[in-house]
Design goal:
149 residues; alpha+beta; four-stranded antiparallel beta sheet; elongated
Length: 149
């Protein structure tokens, strides 16, 4: 991903979805701010994939149980030399977000910030404009629900 030369300062957030409890899940409602920038299906696929990854990370199974037992047996020193299953999934999520930014979002003037950088509370989407581009996204900075930096 090439560095952003000019940032318009317009950001908006995809909130967590607590309709099914406190599991890490984000709303798939398509924001009106994106209507002119990306297809609804691409956005929804991204959020649904992220939700599936977070569900995978939070799933408790044999591996999680074994990690917990090893942690107790070694006074948690085991984690100095091995990654947890949860950490591995978080790396997979970071890689997925980077790929989505490079292939889908950056060419459309958008940038997704990894939710881990926002305390897992929101997915932050920034609207930016490169210096050399002819289009202007300054009109989107006044859209309701967005925050200007």
């Amino acid at each position: 991903l090439r560095p952003l030369e000019t940032v318009c300062g317009c950001v908006f957030f995809i909130q967590r979805d607590y309709s099914e409890g406190t599991t890490c899940k984000f709303q798939t409602k398509f924001p009106s701010e994106l209507e002119t920038r990306i297809e609804r299906s691409l956005f929804e696929d991204t959020v649904k994939t992220l939700n599936n990854y977070y569900a995978e990370a939070e799933k408790i199974g044999g591996q999680s149980y074994l990690e917990g037992c090893l942690a107790c047996a070694t006074a948690y020193l085991i984690f100095l030399c091995m990654e947890t299953r949860y950490e591995k999934v978080l790396k997979k999520i970071a890689k997925y977000i980077q790929e989505q930014n490079e292939k889908i979002y950056a060419p459309r003037g958008l940038l997704i910030t990894d939710p881990i950088e926002r305390g897992m509370r929101v997915i932050e989407i920034s609207i930016y404009e490169d210096r050399g581009s002819s289009g202007s996204s300054s009109s989107s900075s006044s859209v309701s629900g967005s925050t200007t930096r």
